[in-house]
Structures are given as C-alpha cells and as structure tokens.
Amino acid sequence: MKFVLGVDAGGTSTRALAVAADGTVLGAGRAGGANPNSHPPAEAAANLAAAIRAATGVPGRASACVIGMAGTAKLTDPAVAALFERTWSDLGLDRVVVLTDAEVAFAAATDAPDGTVLIAGTGSIAGRIRKRRMVATEGGYGWLLGDEGSGFWLGREAVRATLAALGRDGDLGPLATAVLAEAGVDATDRKYAWRRLITVANAEPPVRLARFAPLVAVDDPAAADIVERAADLLVATALATREPGEDTPVVLVGSVLGDGTRVGERVRAKLAGLEVRTSSDGVLGAAWLAAVEAFGEAAARRPG
C-alpha cells in the first residue's frame, strides 16, 4: 500500500499521521516534544521516532515524510543533523523533508501555494509563503528583542498597566484586580502591592509573563487598549511580509489568534478584505505536503 507520513514536531508533543494516496488516515501516533531547541536532541529524536513508529502499523514503506518542526535551526549543528539522519535511517525513511512549523501550519489551512502565515502564541512571527515554502520573515526575535503582540507581550503589558494603576489614586479596574490575583498579591496596601508585583514578575523567567495574557479578555478599558495595540502590531507584522496589492490568503496560527479570542477578532477585523483562515492542526498540513511530495499536486488528497 502506498502511503506517506506527516509529522508535527512541537515543543510539548509530537504527532504523526500515516496517510494513503486517497487521503485516508491509516494510522496516528503521539509522543513527547521533538523540538531540539527545547529538549536534548537525543530525546527529541527519540520522541519523533516513537510517534512515527506508532503511526506506521501498516505494511510497506512510506513514499515520503514531511516533518514540520519547531526548532529547525538546531539542525544546522552537524552533530544534531547527523543524529536525526540516523533516526530517519533506523526508521527506514528514504525521503524526508524537514520544514518549519509555520510552513505546515499554512498548508493545514489552505491549498494555496502562496500567502502569509502569522503566528502568535507565546512569541510572534510572520512569514511570506511562496510555493509552500517560507521565503521571508518579519519578527520572531524572541521576548527580549521583539515578539510584539504575542502572549508574552500581552502579559507584560497587563502587568505594566496594573503597576500604573497601583501608582495612581482611584479604584483598581478588573484587569488590575485579575493580574494581582494571578500573581498572588494582596492589594490591600497599594504601595506594598506595587513593590510585590514587581518582585513576583522579576522572580520568574521573563517568558512566564505570558501567563497573564488571558487576563486581557476582561471587560476593562485598560485591557481593551492592550488588545487593540496588540492587534495593530500583529497586523503590521503580517503586512510587512506581503507585496503591494497581493491577493493571497493570510493564515492565522497560535493561541493568541484563535477563533473567539479578543486579539484574534480584532486582527480579523483589521484584515477585512483579505482571505483570512485559521490553522489549528499542523499535522494535517504536514501529511498533505508529504502526499504532494510523493504523488504530485493532481494525485494528492487532503487527509480526512
């Protein structure tokens, strides 16, 4: 039986699908994270192999395998690259294409070969997609240098707004109250609360500020201002990757941009007039790209 493999190798988990030429899903596997930047490379490779083995309980060899991986930059290390090459060989995989998680996320949402992918989770980045490959990026510099509009950025702005509210007279609004509760800070003594919130925020790794991001969903003018600024920044990041007058899809990816989120709603409103789609399952994009790789555009069928 002819089949292909699609793999979504993230930082938290790895999922694999074995898919027939007609799009039928033949097997699925799941394992721990396989991002070699956030896990020791040997552990990442082992988790990737475990997910693939769980998915391939079908006779024959995969005609192609596409792996969407967070942390592909790590494969520029010759030792890490050799480790993963041995993993492909041990699995009997002859035709492996490693792509970024952004590329498979774009393919999961649209058949179009060209467009824009905008990702906003803990961090943020936008990419220009051409022939299903990312050829240019905007943002993605990490929490210290950028990640505007991301979960980290939203959380930081929520804490900053709370500190500003604590420094003024007047009642604390719903956002400040929620931030203090999340931080475990008693607001009875405002001067103490101001100092204590600074201490709590600085006691953790900076990226942990993302835990305050969901709090901007409260009904509060300060929260609405943060949401609006985040949406403006994310839209600007996405548009910076597009050519004037470009008529291609924009695919939104990540927890900040999900359907029903306040930031996602504002981003969609600001991109009115463009075709905007949401990607929720990168492994389907990886499997479809593997089918295109093996069977060609005309023969490939999206998994279902």
From TrEMBL:
Residues 5-290 form the ATPase BadF/BadG/BcrA/BcrD type domain. Keywords: Kinase, Transferase. InterPro entries: ATPase_BadF, ATPase_NBD, Euk-type_GlcNAc_Kinase. Coiled coil: none annotated. The keyword Lipid biosynthesis does not apply. One of its GO terms (molecular function) is kinase activity. This is N-acetylglucosamine kinase. It comes from Amycolatopsis methanolica 239.
